[in-house]
Give the backbone structure.
Amino acid sequence: MQNVKVLKAIIIMLAIALIAVAYKFTKGSVAPSNDTRIAVVLSKDERNLILKEMRNFLISVQGVSEAISNNDMHQVAKLSTEAGMKAEENAPGALLAKIPLEMKKLGFDTRQKFDQISADATTLKDPLHSRKQLDALMKNCIACHASYQLVEAK
Ligand code: HEC
């Protein structure tokens, strides 16, 4: 009887721990911000890493847009692949855990949209189609910037 009670207590404790981890993963490391957005609290290095990725995003968007204008579909595919999910391969797990689930979804969706642009540029080779895909992708940039800011932990 005693064993069953101990077992039950352990199961309950594990369940609580699991819920806590799931909650943390969903909510991320957030705090109220100095404006209407949600502040994501990161270490200095983590914040710098994301901001670097952001500047690369801008370089990618510019490059893909220019390649579309030049009707260089090979270059469209190459640059969008580089900005696709491949770029997340080395994303640190500890950093991912600090990012709210909704922000992660927007981030990964943006990467996947780059991959889709790349795939379609290779098969369809239609610049207008790629242009429309890039227009849609940039709405993700706008949506995320409207919702989140990055602050350094004190
Ligand atoms: C998943 C969320 C998210 C997406 C998607 C996103 N950004 Fe950002 N970006 C941010 C956040 C958060 C900041 C920091 C804003 C702040 O702290 O005020 C930022 C900052 C930036 C900066 C400033 C970098 C610096 O050095 O200060 C640039 C440039 C940028 N983003 C470009 C882009 C472009 C272009 C896209 C789309 C291709 C994009 N971002 C998509 C979240 C996102």
The pocket of heme C is lined by residues 51, 54-55, 57-58, 61, 103, 106-107, 110, 138, 140-141, 144-145, 148-150 (CB under 6 Å). The first strand starts at residue 30 and ends at 32.
